[in-house]
Amino acid sequence: MNAFWLVVLLAAIAAIYGSIPFYSAPVMGQLVWVSSFAQSFANDGWFTVFSHNFGYPRTAPMAFGLPGALVEGALLRVTTLSAANAYSFMTIGYLALAGWGAIRCAQRIGLSYRAAVFVAAVWLTMPMVWAHAVYSMLSIGIALLPFYLNQALRVCRIDNARASTLVASALSFAATAMLSVFMDGYTFVMFALATFIFLAVEGLSDRARLRWVAVVSLPICIAGFAVAYLLYVTFLGFPAFTPDSLDIFRGWGVDVTMLIFPTKGLFWFWDHLGMGLDRNDQFYYGDASVWTTTFSLFVGLFGCLGFFVVRRQKIAVAFLAIAIVGTYLSLGPSLKVHSLRPHADIVAGNFSPLMPAANAVMPTGSGYLSEHVPGFKNMRASYRWLALGLFGLWALFAMLIGELERRQRAGWALVLVALTVACNLPNPHMAASQSIVYPSTARVKLRAPHHWQESLRNVDETLVASFKRQIRPRSVVAFVPQGNDFLAAYLAAEANAKTYNAGGDKNVEIAQSAWPANIQALFASDPGHLGAAIKQTLDAHDADYVVVSFIDLLWDAHEWPPATANVEAAKARFAGALDQLEADPRFVVSRDQYFATVALR
Predict the structure, then answer these.
(1) Domain boundary at 416, 445, 474, which?
(2) Strand, coil or helix: what is 158?
């Protein structure tokens, strides 16, 4: 397959993903968050991995997605691209790397180049990849799983004792582990677990290989993962996240019916046939990501058929083990089979995403892992383990395609690939019912790529442009009300200012530990005492500007423009404080459409 057709294939994958520069963006809220880091990196130069524009006075590490933000930051530094377009180019680059990794992985298990390209298309069109685009770099980490595990296969099956080969293998594996851990923690844990399954099968299935695996392959893998983890913990500044209750793991566990029955309104093929089930958060636990990403009927069927056909190959046993382990862990601590909320909860309006054990069918036995085992206990969105299970099934499917090609059944192989890809394709007119519900907004559609591109352009042309006109570069700013402030971080980075606010739960936690007393008091103030707190902050020179926001700095980053009624209500709520400050000749108050700035005259 020549380069032209590979470019066409990549363009098709980018369109499915929703990442078409100058036309669409795969996500909005998470794009704003990633781009705030990317713009901050662009502001600070080539050799920085911390943001100096938000989380002041501390610097802000990026809990996940750092490789993506670094690439986007480089694009912003050397081009005139907007954040949305730079993000889209960045995702296309990583999707290309993921496609190359899937091709190499398929070739490593015996497929021809042509067949490998076809099965790579199957992987990149799976809903587990494109439906996670709204979670930004998580979807890229999932897309890269074959790339990661190709490196694992390479190390596990190494048989060359030359020092140069061993060093090159160790360095490439460590680099892959570092890319994985900084890209996304979920897929890093999956990468590690699958690697040790490969090592176990490789060593235990052939006694002649056991010594070599124990002496060479295992140390390379342990060292690579250890170096990556230690670098990540050092970078982030703390070793572990707060553990979550089993009710969260249970709520975000996959329901078995979601694997085999598609969700209505998501898939072009199934919607065309009038098939699919209505699912929403009024009846199901967790959130929409659980039932929009997990449908995998044909990959599951063809993967199982593949194992039956190639079961004599020992690598097929490893892939089957990965498929079983990943799928089992995706169920969470309790088995769910069309497990809905009790009718009493629905009537009472109790739509908590957390699921009590009593409402599931039975325990699965994985609860101990989720409560006590490092790595596993941080995988609170249990259904995401299915990405690992689907990798194992995809690899078995790939082996089936390779076997059909060897048996001169290329036509059948093409039919299976075409059918699977067709069943994976998203419905371009996704039903409005498939959405995420935010507390301060109406329902937000899971996929609205062109709308998001237009919305982000409007953010830049209105909110960002106005903010940059009023705020001096490198000045210190505090936004109120304070919270998980995606847009505050984005505005500060775009204006190259410094703000105490931060976006991202962990970044807020890191930042607030170093806030001065006046800033803590400012952020804790209610509207009735806000004027006095702003005066105290500015008089003490703890900030050059206080920005009173009339928009929600978290949720309006996910859906723009904000509702006019919400903006007007915020203006009314803060009018008293602003009037008080305006009456004081020491202060300058400037009111804009979406915010007001207060500074010493």
Answers:
(1) 445
(2) coil
